[in-house]
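Researcher: Good morning. I'm working through a list of sequences from a screen, and I'd like to move beyond sequence-only analysis. For each chain I'm collecting a predicted structure so we can compare shapes side by side. This is the next one on the list. No need for commentary yet; just the structure.
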Amino acid sequence: MVTRFAPSPTGYLHIGHVVNAIYVWRMAREAGGRVLLRIEDHDRVRCRPEYEAAILEDLEWLGFEPDEGVRPLLRQSDRAHLYEEALVRLRTTHHVYACDCSRKQIGGERYDGRCRERRLADEHGRGVRVRIEPGPEVFEDLLLGAIEQTPADQCGDLLLRDRNGQWTYQFAATVDDMLQGVTHIIRGADLLRSTARQLRLARMLGRRDTPLYLHHPLVFKPNGEKLSKSAADTGVRELRRAGMSAADVIALATERAGLGK
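Model: Good morning. Structure tokens for this chain:
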């Protein structure tokens, strides 16, 4: 078993991240598996070195020790050549094309393929997409059971690189999980809708095995809103400054998530 803890350094860790870490490390240790740390800094606009340093410090303080990915630190920003190689392979087997549509033009999550046959040049200011064929993906979630999703209906043709030349989360995470041999993907329920498109994309890239998934419940504010890194909601840094110990923070996260000790 190989799983991963993959934070994005766009803010500080909060209780929701601690809940995810509890799930990841608990499942890995119970199975005799390994935890890979991966810094998902594909968004070069929002990511900050100070957030990355704080994430590493807070993880160490909390006692979550990865088995690999720390020395050297595994960052997506250092892996652009691997994503480029994956894109080259994908071009040889699937319909990959340039797209100049803005989010406003698309008007929602699903892209309808309007640039598919335009034969636009692949240049700065244009994204890169791959055609997603119709048909469902069926997978077994270790917590939620059997789930069926249809990527072509959910998202349409998938964006791989955006108009600013940045690799997208969907593409970078899928390539990384394949190349790093991740067998179990443990994450919050907010990413459940990404699963089928990532499974489809992994097969298109040539992945032969299918990773197992577990999507755990999220932790919410008392008013029902999702926790946010940008708003410093129940941040680990704030809890530390308030005098809580690492054991206190983990106990709080365990309680908020409804997990047994």
